[in-house]
């Protein structure tokens, strides 16, 4: 009888511990993970005040500095390039390796484009690599078709 009571106590203790652990883990406050802020290279000649105030310098958007404008422009170019994914990848449905390589390049480019911490160099590199992958896919397809004309002839 004593052994039965001990087993009940231990099992209830275990179940109670599990329930309390689950309850505390579900109700604890979550600490948001801070996004690391990119540290752009410092300008060699910091100028606290612009030489001409207002809109006289020809800048149509004084709220953005040149680096931010370049980054926005580069991201727009990369987004335009990634928007053609379904069209470009669709050309290589019958070429599994070429399609896989191209899809991988698009995935990397989209990740870079969607990242809020991407630098100008990262965006330009991603754009360049994606364009290279698109060009390589076209040349690989052309080379494959030239090398395997006899294989492709019945399907043409």
TrEMBL record:
Presence of the UniProt keyword Signal in the record = yes
Annotated region Disordered: where?
27-71, 137-156
* Record PROSITE patterns: PROKAR_LIPOPROTEIN
Pro residues composition bias: which ranges? Answer: 33-51
User: What top-level branch of life does the organism fall under?
Assistant: Bacteria
Q: Does the keyword Lipoprotein apply?
A: yes
Question: What residue stretch is flagged as signal peptide?
Answer: 1-22
Please identify the protein, giving its name as recorded.
VlhA.3.0.1 variable lipoprotein family domain protein
């Amino acid at each position: 009888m004593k052994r039965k009571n001990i087993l009940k106590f231990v099992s209830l203790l275990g179940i109670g511990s599990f329930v309390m652990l689950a309850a505390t883990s579900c109700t604890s406050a979550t600490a948001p993970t801070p996004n690391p802020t990119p540290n752009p290279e410092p300008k060699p000649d910091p100028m606290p005040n612009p030489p001409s105030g207002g809109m006289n310098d020809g800048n149509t958007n004084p709220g953005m500095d040149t680096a931010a404008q370049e980054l926005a422009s580069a991201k727009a170019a990369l987004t335009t390039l990634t928007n053609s994914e379904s069209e470009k990848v669709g050309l290589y449905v019958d070429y599994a390796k070429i399609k896989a390589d191209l899809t991988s390049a698009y995935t990397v480019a989209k990740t870079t484009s969607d990242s809020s911490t991407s630098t100008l160099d990262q965006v330009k590199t991603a754009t360049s690599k994606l364009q290279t992958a698109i060009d390589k896919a076209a040349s690989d397809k052309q080379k494959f078709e030239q090398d395997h004309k006899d294989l492709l002839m019945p399907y043409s």
